[in-house]
Amino acid sequence: MAPPRAPTPAKNELARAITVFVEGFTFTRSFTHPYLAQRFGSLWVMRDAPRQKAADARREEWVATDEPPNKVHATLRARHRGRFALCVIVPAGANEAEVRAAYKMLGYRLAGTEAFMVHDLRRIPRVASPAKITRVLAPALADAVNQAAGWSQILPAHLQAAAPLRAYAARSGGKVVGWVRSGVCAHGTWCSSMFVQPAHRRQGIGSALLAKMLRDDRRHGTRQAVLLAGHAGAKLYAAMGYRRIGTLLLFNPPSPSG
Hints:
By secondary structure, the protein is of the alpha+beta class. It has helices at residues 11-28, 69-79, 96-105, 139-149, 205-219, 231-239, and strands at 35-40, 43-48, 60-64, 84-91, 109-119, 132-135, 165-172, 175-185, 188-196, 225-229, 243-252. β7 (165-172) and β8 (175-185) form a beta hairpin.
């Protein structure tokens, strides 16, 4: 017997969550150069602001949900400016196989899938952790997280209490062993860069990081927290109260000769 399908989310809930995704994704991509969002009908496109050298532009990310695939394809052919990928968010309960098949017929190649999840911040589990969980507000801790993560994504501007990005670190034995970020958007918060060092997993550290982040989201007045998750991560997020409201299908475009 096939497992029951998840209930289909209300259209307004899905639309709000997609807006948070777009707001959060463009925010975290704008630290080195503005990465902007624009709407074309029901589609979103996220792309670089104009650059001095067009060749330096990063790949565009287009986002679609319930638009017919042939119409999405026509818009992309008319509007894209260079390299691009297509993110199709299929609502929970919809026929994902049909969507995949329709885009395959148009020449699109599936590159990956992720769970599209939301948290309404009403119930947040309490989690015990062997690591100390703190918000990153001190330059020294920001430097330690950036060094451990191998990027410079926590900037001095993010160390203020009212900053648009809240970062959290897990420390054990004086070392940073995990981190997560919450980007503050107009319509909710966007969770990104959740990571726990392999040697410290399965100890509740990831759950404790999420619990701290979600409680701060709620305390600051957020009503919806949104994220994307791989297969393994989706199980952790579900245990923390996130609901899967869709699946993001990431497609590469048809080849020029297709």
